[in-house]
Amino acid sequence: GDSVTQMEGPVTLSEEAFLTINCTYTATGYPSLFWYVQYPGEGLQLLLKATKADDKGSNKGFEATYRKETTSFHLEKGSVQVSDSAVYFCALKPQGLNEKLTFGTGTRLTIIP
Amino acid sequence: KAGVTQTPRYLIKTRGQQVTLSCSPISGHRSVSWYQQTPGQGLQFLFEYFSETQRNKGNFPGRFSGRQFSNSRSEMNVSTLELGDSALYLCASSFQGEVDTIYFGEGSWLTVV
């Protein structure tokens, strides 16, 4: 079945550091890939998405590229801020009319000033 | 446009009771899905409804059920509550297309005592 393997946390970085959170997946066909972010006490917010190989999703300085050859969708940001502290989830949605998301375990990110 | 709305936001129930959670999707969205989030199991898919029909179901016992109304609003019910049902229950909606984005509500926090 489909699965998502996400970098274990927690991750602690200093403000303005470079961020990478690794995500790899297993799925048949061509799934869509997502990064969601969850702030304390809140639901999930879509951060970015990519729907086909070599697509790059980007939002709020975050980027991730859909790499079919390595089945990866790593999240990056060049300069993190304290406000980026949250839990980040990588997820995939199977190809076709199927709205079931499979999530990774989440990575808790803390940015210290 | 309004986002996904879930009610109630917080509730406390006693073991053995039942609970009903409600979800109003984004206007125009026809697919509604439900997820359970716990510290131990992470985010797990419960079920998905489209046009009042259950289209997908996760691996949860029959105590967990749901339905969707003609206006796309959805409810989920958990009967005979157990302590392990304490979780954040997230509802998500999408327009329903092959590459549509799935949007989440703030969630309903259920505590079973």
Low-pLDDT segments of chain B? none
Please give the number of β-strands of chain B: 11
How many helices of chain A?
0
Secondary-structure content class of chain B: mainly beta
The proportion of residues forming helix of chain B, as a percent range, comes to: under 10%
- What is the CA-CA span between the terminal residues of chain B? 37 Å
Describe the structure.
The complex is a heterodimer of chains A (113) and B (113). By secondary structure, chain A is mainly beta. Chain A contains no helices and twelve strands. Helices cover 0% and strands 50% of the residues of chain A. In chain A, a hairpin with an 8-residue loop joins β10 and β11 (102-103). Chain A is globular. Chain A starts with a strand and ends with a strand. With 113 residues, chain B is mainly β. Helices cover 0% and strands 53% of the residues of chain B. Chain B has no helices and eleven strands. The A-B interface holds A 32, 34, 36, 42-46, 49, 51, 89, 93, 95-106 and B 4, 6, 31, 33, 35, 42-43, 45, 48, 50, 55-56, 58, 90, 92, 94, 96-107.
Q: How does the SSE layout of this entry go?
A:
The complex is a heterodimer of chains A (113) and B (113).
Chain A: E1 3-6, E2 11-14, E3 19-21, E4 23-26, E5 32-38, E6 44-50, E7 56-59, E8 62-65, E9 75-77, E10 86-93, E11 102-103, E12 107-112
Parallel strand pairs in A: 2-12
Antiparallel strand pairs in A: 1-4, 3-9, 5-6, 5-10, 7-8, 8-9, 10-11, 10-12
Chain B: E1 5-7, E2 10-13, E3 19-24, E4 31-38, E5 42-50, E6 53-57, E7 64-68, E8 74-78, E9 87-94, E10 103-104, E11 108-112
Parallel strand pairs in B: 2-11
Antiparallel strand pairs in B: 1-3, 3-8, 4-5, 4-9, 5-6, 7-8, 9-10, 9-11
